[in-house]
Write a structure and sequence with these properties.
The chain is an all-alpha fold and 382 residues long. The chain has a single domain, classed as Up-down Bundle (Na+/H+ antiporter like fold). It has 16 helices and no strands. The radius of gyration is 21 Å and the shape is globular. The termini are far apart. The relative contact order is 0.15. The model has no long low-confidence stretch (mean pLDDT 84).
Length: 382
Amino acid sequence: MEQFYIIISVSMILMVSPMIAKAINSPLVVVELFLGMLAGVVGLIEYDANLKLIAKFGFLYLMFLAGLEINLKLVKTIKKELSLNVTGYFILLYAIAISLSMLLKLSPLYYVALPIFSLGMLMMLVKEYGKNEQWLNLAVSIGVVGEVVSILALTIFSGWLEFGFENEFYIAIFKLFIVIVLSIVFLYGTQALFWWYPELKVYIIPNEDRYDQDIRFTMSLFFILIACMIYLKVDAVIGAFLAGLFMRMFFHEKQQLIEKLSSFGFGFFAPIFFIYTGSTVKLDVINMEILQNALFIIVAIISIRLISSFLAFYKYLKFKNTILFALSDSMPLTFLVAVSMLAYEHGLIKQAEYFSFIIASMIDGLLLMVFIRWMYSKFYKS
């Protein structure tokens, strides 16, 4: 009977959350997390091994979509004279985050969580403001690099959670380095192969596809690369991300396929991950301390980006654009949820702190979207 309620509840949330998000003009992920919370509180969604497994798959598919979103051409648009600024920006982000965490004696989770990036909310800004805004173009380019850095940070963090600073951790880091090198060789090798034999691409995914060969190839690649990472005892996230990056690099012209994969992910698997995550947060135990910690996380995420942005990009962007740039890169909702759940499942943080991170991710995404609109209208109103 419990599974009946879980299936019905998840299905209803999947169906109504886009309508609610549209009605209240809220990010869809925030609505999914909140409805998951409500369903958890009233007992409609309780712990279930099958739901957890689907949610885990949803998370891996989300990492696949992260790779699919990566447009390496955007990285090339970063001007050469800004390359040092970009490097300095990331060094500042992590240096300030780690220094603040050590100063306040916070969990090592904060080293990774505070400077983490996610492109999801940025894409919503691109849809709203277009591609001609200087601050937004730079934010997306930085976001591409930041998401790759975040994937690596997430993988290293996961290895540390599993092994600590034992020899196994350093072996895992070495394996990760080897996997990255092999992945680069694999991508460049495939690029050369397709350059010499372009007909191979058509053979793999025909222009006239009667057998859904595009989906078959993509999902096979997705699972094969995940299986390889599991065999090598490297985080499966890397395999999922690499599969998405592969499809983006070599089949970006297959726009219908890209849209199909994105719709399937954002319309089904990713929402289940967020609904499940929301259901693990117990609203009835939330107190002022949890809310205060959530507020601290939001302020810290925004502050370290404002400081780093002004130090790295002020000369290029000037005052108004620097503020908008910093705020637009301060919404790592997806990865913030992912990294906090990872830390909670490994016992690095307690339940209350985990709740703080989930609430912070929701409020941060919601408030900043509204605040950026207000700031933009103030700065550039006609």
